[in-house]
Amino acid sequence: MALTPYQSDALIKEVDDAVRQDDMLSFWSRYGRVVAGAVVLALGAYGGWLLWQNHRNSVAEANSEQFADLLKSAEAASLDQPVYDKLVAGGGPGYKSQAQLVKAALAAGKNDDKEAVATYDAIIADPAALQPAKDAALIRKTALSFDSMAPDQVVAALKGLAVPGNAWYGSAGELTAIAYLKMGKRDLAAELFGSLARDAAVPDSIKLRAGQMASALGAAAPAAPAPALAR
Question: Does the entry feature the keyword Chaperone, yes or no (predicted)?
């Protein structure tokens, strides 16, 4: 008996399903272990990633708490050595450098310039230290060593920071301008002091000193702010 079109379509579908099922069984018998292993590895990797993320968060939180403890001890003009050692050993580049900056500042506050400079040098030489920490260390080291450095050494050390737009332009520019004065380069000093006095991003204390020095050297004084209009 001939099959109706509907029966023919149904039979084809059943045969097709059987072939697909047979192919799947054949594929699974050959590669089932590999697929299962890959799935387990993928799940394991994802679980490991989650654990690592949790570990990183926990470590970051612990480092933050330890750094807070270090700052608390620094407020009493002392260094919590065990906490400092932990941050240097396991705090990562950020907390390590911050801890070293605290140590150097404490040493400088006790007039131990040798210890402070050595710590700043360690930050500058550390390839893993972040650039902002390196720049801060360079500025503070130069300020501490200014009297013992040749003026041209100061200018060379700070040339990358004593430029408008740099976060350290105020401090680096002021030290550089004073170095120019020691070198007898009054025109360069006056120009730099004037630039510092006119730069809105420079801290007010430095702007005030720079404006006074610029005026004393004959440079143009910064423009006075326009008076507020009465309403």
Answer: yes
